[in-house]
Amino acid sequence: MSGAAARERSRTMTDAATGAATTAAIQAASGGAAERPLTFGAVVRQSRARLPLIGAASLLGSLGTLALPLALAAAVDAIAAGGDARIPVAIAAGLVLLGVACDLVESTAATTCTADAAARLRTGMVRRLLGAPHRIGRFDTGDLVARISAGAADAAHAGPSAVGAVAAALPPLGSLVVLIWLDWRLAAAFAVGLTLVALVLRLFAKQTATAALHYQAAQGDMAARLTEALDGARTIAAAGTLGAETRRVLTGLPALAEHGRATWRALAAAGARAAVAGPLATIGVLVVAGFLVAGGRLSTGELLAAAQYAMMGAGLGSLTGIVAAVARSRAAVARIAEVHDLSAMSYGTDALPDGPGSLAFREVTVRAGDRVLLQDITFTVPGGATAAVVGKAGSGKSTLAETAVRLRDPDSGEVALDGSPLPALARSDLRTAVSLATARPALAGATLADAMGPGRPRDEVRAAAEAVGAHDFATRLPAAYDTPLPEVPMSGGEAQRIGLARAWHADRLLVLDDATSSLDLLSADRIEEALAATGRTRLVVTYDAALAARADLVVWLADGRVRATGPHDVLWSNPEYRAVFAR
Ligand SMILES: Nc1ncnc2c1ncn2[C@@H]1O[C@H](COP(=O)(O)OP(=O)(O)OP(=O)(O)O)[C@@H](O)[C@H]1O
Questions:
Q1: Do residues 350 and 429 touch, judged by C-beta distance below 8 A?
Q2: Given ligand 1 and candidates 136, 397, 543, 556, which is best to mutate, with the most ligand atoms within 8 Å of its CB?
């Protein structure tokens, strides 16, 4: 991936995290509750309200299927003996109708159950993602969308497919029981064939599970690449790399096709093996039954019934479909579990003590995997002061900004506001005290007013909009502040103003990460003055030397460490410091 694309992606993730935190702040739901890990069995249990109906319909259908050969046998024997076959024929017809009715009930209930389960899984995943802004970055957006859409749909079949698997096992087992009842020798011949069928199914289940897991992972991978490419579509068009990007997005296509073919190969192989194992079981039963009829120990009707039970029990048809559904569902549940089991950002219970909004970083280290993003960062911004955070691209400024508002937690060290470590603070206290505005804010909410001040009274939203120069823009819209957010056309600068209005409401600390970079200098200066007049503490990530010069303190970052802190005028004598602003 190019450096530009990597930055683009990193920004998208930051925006997603910012949006997640916004939503987390809007919703007062408590985070951090430990929940059980998601497993196939757990998804089955979540569907338990609807499973009895599916199970009852399947069971009744299976029993009807099992009874049918006996009813037919009775009819044949009655006809052969010149008796009245009307009752067994009527019973057989009733059993056929029962089977149809059970199928209808089962498929309707299974559809409702699957739809409910998919909705529940999707809601759970979205809630967890939004509740874990500090962990969201480990997933690619497209991959997440694939898990939430196709993945949840596959996983949602867990309940019906588990019940279906149990129900599908009933005819072979029931056949075995009936054959024992007819004659144990029939059952022994059948059991040999059934064991072969079971081995075929077991192998098929293993192969299908592996193929399904790989297929879904490849799907997620391609979706991730596509989302990245769509994010950077303008860059790609401008760079003239359309062909290369298209190839990159579709890189996984051969693998996807291969995993799809593997599923079909497994199915074909199972079919071929079944073509041997199934008839073997039937032939075995028929041979034994032939001897028994010849010896007068079995009637003609019972011979017919034995043959039907042997075929029913050894038939793989419906079993392969159910085994494949279970395998797909298990694979999807495993992928969803990675999202489901994200621990939500936990909040403390402490109230924020009174104070001016002083911010302290104490030996803060932040890592991403093996990589150290920030190391031993220590500085203090006195309450009401402005600190500029400067440094070359990639020096860790945005990471520091996110850590200051607790979108990330340090791996070691501590960030404190007015002496209180951020993780100890109650969610509402923390989120009303601090806010972050970024260069590309992720705006959330139904209307423009929601985006500017989630849950805030209109006069506060308007005051914030006026302070950041977004009021005129809002009043020009068809429904002003009530304009639905998706219908608000906005430039980069206007989006930044909306993001600033949203951040404005924090009452102690505002962190601005390049948040006025798309505004003209005069507008940016006015916003700066308005912010300064509020007396709130500001941490401003910037490449603007004039802004750094006006700050009370500059924190100069290099390679994730504090290179120096001090007034801009003093640092300016260092040519390397000046080089940070060279552009
Ligand atoms: N989740 C992550 N995993 C791995 N590396 C990361 C992650 N997040 C950030 N980085 C890397 O950490 C470094 C610091 O990133 P950061 O965004 O904080 O830099 P920055 O100083 O704000 O850069 P810029 O001015 O270009 O926005 C970069 O090299 C970035 O690629």
A1: yes
A2: 397
Q: Which domains does the chain have, with CATH numbers?
A: 33-340 (1.20.1560.10), 359-580 (3.40.50.300)
Residue-wise DSSP of 524-547:
HHHHHHHHHHHT-EEEEE---HHH
- Most confident among 9-23, 158-172, 294-308, 401-415 (mean pLDDT): 401-415
- The verdict on the CB of residue 394 being under 6 Å from ligand 1 is yes
Q: Within a 10 A sphere around the Cβ of 185, how many other Cβ atoms?
A: 17
Distance 400 CA to ligand 1 centre (A): 10
Nearest 5°: CA angle at 302, between 300 and 306?
Answer: 120
Atom 17 of ligand 1, residue of closest alpha carbon: 398
Token pair of 52, please?
């009895």
Is the distance from CB of 72 to CB of 362 less than 8 angstroms? no
Question: Which residue matches tokens 């079993």?
Answer: 319
pLDDT in tens, 416-460: 999 999 999 998 999 899 999 999 888 888 899 999 988 889 999
* Pairing relationship of beta strands 537-541 and 509-513 according to DSSP bridges: parallel
- Burial string for 15-35 (b: 16+ CB within 10 Å, else e) reads bbbbbbbbbbbeeeeebeeee
Q: Which residues contact 28 (CB under 8 A, 6 or more apart)?
A: 427, 428
Looking at residue 463, the DSSP 8-state letter turns out to be H
pTM here is 0.64
